Amino acid sequence: MTPVEKADVLLEALPYIRRFAGKLLVIKYGGHAMEDDELKDSFAQDVTLLKYVGMNPVIVHGGGPQIDAALLKAGIEPRFVRGLRVTDAATMSVVEMVLVGKINKEIVTLLNRHGGNAVGLSGKDGELVVARKRRTQDLGFVGEVVGVNARVVDSLAGFIPVIAPVAADADGVTYNINADVVAGKVAEALRAEKLILLTDVEGVRSRDGALIDTLPADAASDLIRDGTISGGMIPKVECCLEAIRGGVKQAHVIDGRVRHAVLLEVLTSRGVGTEILPRTLRRSRNRLAAS
Questions:
Q1: How many CB atoms lie within 10 A of CB 93?
Q2: In this structure, what DSSP letter does residue 208 have?
Q3: Considering just the CA atoms, what is the radius of gyration of the chain in Å?
Q4: Which residue, among 188, 190, 291, has the nearest Cα to 244 in the 3D structure?
Q5: What are the structural domains of the chain?
Q6: What's the CA gap between 134 and 165, in Å, rounded?
Q7: In this structure, are residues 92 and 176 in contact, taking their beta carbons and an 8 Å threshold?
Q8: What's the pLDDT tens digit per position in 203-225?
Q9: Residues in contact with 2: Cβ distance below 8 Å, sequence separation at least 6, in sequence order
Q10: Average predicted confidence (pLDDT) for the chain
Q11: Residues 190, 182: Cα–Cα separation, whole Å
Q12: Those residues with Cβ within 8 angstroms of residue 46's Cβ, 6 or more apart along the chain or in another chain
């Protein structure tokens, strides 16, 4: 690549930097991107770069495989019901230890090593996230979000918050909460410009199996109803739809297996997954992002 071609690549990012400068982006970090060393480095570089060009990334992370490994080491068999972890008291202790005490600190250290200036939190810190026991089915200490204290994140201006999806209820009981759900609720409370969910698939696919680049919210609901969107993609898309209803401008389901997936989504015209929009729009991703 010649110097001029390199300059052209940098200039492609300019309208997106201008569009999102000063805006808040909530990124759910999980899946293969958390396990592969090369992908971990590229994620940290992406987030750090977004911070340095004037955006305000907030990270919410998962850690399912790491929790499973720790449970098995402790002699506890992981159990799931419809994709949700059954969490008894012993499991909850392991979940909190792994998410808050291990993974959160590893992500903070990785971001700081790349110059990111990150700070680790759980939902308990400053009552950032207030939980209650999940009502639709009893899975033990599995919770849902009833409130987010945006002032905690506001007080960390200049830092990259990294949030573990563990929170307490009004009585101080600790709950494990799905990281996608926490990311969506944090994005709503912060009135984020974007919610980005990293996954281990390319994105949302249409009835004929083609990857959908841009998906209006009403069309997404139709695809869930007719079964085109199925399995583990349903809660991710529903999380995006709820965030959009709560005021988030754009939501994305992107392929975290791609190096620099976050940068490609935020700073280029093509993206690496599916963008879910609040209304029916037929403009291209490039025109929309640069407008």
A1: 15
A2: T
A3: 19
A4: 188
A5: 3-290 (3.40.1160.10)
A6: 14
A7: yes
A8: 999 889 899 999 998 899 899 99
A9: none
A10: 91
A11: 12
A12: 260, 261, 262, 263
Which tokens sit at 170?
């009004």
User: 3-state DSSP call for residue 20?
Assistant: helix
CA separation for the pair 286, 15 (Å, rounded): 10
DSSP state string for 54-116: T-EEEEEE--HHHHHHHHHHTT----EETTEEPB-HHHHHHHHIIIIIIIHHHHHHHHHHTT-
Q: How far apart, in whole angstroms, are the C-alpha atoms of residue 235 and residue 174?
A: 23
> What is the reported pTM?
0.91
Q: Is the dihedral of CA 6, 12, 14, 16 positive or negative?
A: negative
Longest dimension (CA), the chain: 62
Distance CA 141, CA 132 (A): 9
Separation CA 29–CA 38 (nearest Å): 15
Residue with tokens 């955006």: 55
Closest among 201, 197, 285, 202 to 238, alpha carbons compared = 197
Query: pLDDT for 10-59, tens place per residue?
Result: 888 999 999 999 999 999 999 888 989 999 999 999 999 999 999 999 99
Q: Which residues contact 202 (CB under 8 A, 6 or more apart)?
A: 211, 255, 272, 273
How far from chain centre, in Å, is Cα 20? 17
Phi, psi of 51 (to 5 degrees): -65, -45
* Residue carrying structure tokens 């969506």: 184
